[in-house]
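TL;DR need structure tokens for one chain.
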Amino acid sequence: MGLGSNHVTGTTINNWRPNIWASEVLSARESALVLANLVKRYDRDVATKGKTVEIPNLSNLTAYAKVANTQVTLNAPTEGKTTITIDQHWESSVLIEDFAEVQSAYDAASEYRTKTGYAIAEKMDNFIADDMKTNFTQTVGTYGVALSYSAILDAKQKLDEAKAPMTERYFVVTPKGHRDLLGIDEFVRYDAMGAASQPSGFRTGRVGMILGNDVFMSQNLVVTAGTPTQNNCLFFQREAYALAVQTQPKTEMQRKTEYLGDLIVTQALWGGKVLRNDHGVTVKC
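>> reply
TL;DR here they are.
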């Protein structure tokens, strides 16, 4: 005899079936933050006061042939200056009401405090990437065409011709640029680079070396969607760009009784500028 359809099912005992919440939150992924650590910094100069950083320029002098029985030829250059304006003031804030905090199974204040700090750091990285791309006048490569070893050599040549120091040169690539690099033999072969030059532990953003220069991958470089999509990688020496952070990312918490909650605010104040235009190249791909 059949038992019919009056069964105890998941629907009939639905109220007995709890939703189990994980012990950890699933945090949104974060970009590799690299650029602020690769450029020249003037933080100390504006740590306590000031609206600009005035950097005096120093010209090269001319050598003259000494003619017997004549006085020397004097150099008298008119020196200029480079100005960094501290005008980037950014904040990231969240207010957590007591009702939400008390009933939450997680430490909401701690989790969101971390995210406000990251929001500011990412904004600074984006600012530098956009400023470099906008103001570097030297370019190599072609949008929509895979990054090539020849384009990298062209970028290196531009820095060599500008007398940029061989030290502290960096190549920062987009995810697509990194993919293209992995197809370049000179980048991936140990015998071309030397095993000792391979990254140890892959510190944040660093993905290898090419031509003796550290290579970093960043999701914060300027990528413009289109046909083709425009990827803007950056090859530069540290003094190509100057950053002056007057207020380092600082987080404060304040009790807001009128809202029965806690306000979390992270802020930073900085300015940046291309310092030596000929020390930087936008590499298109």
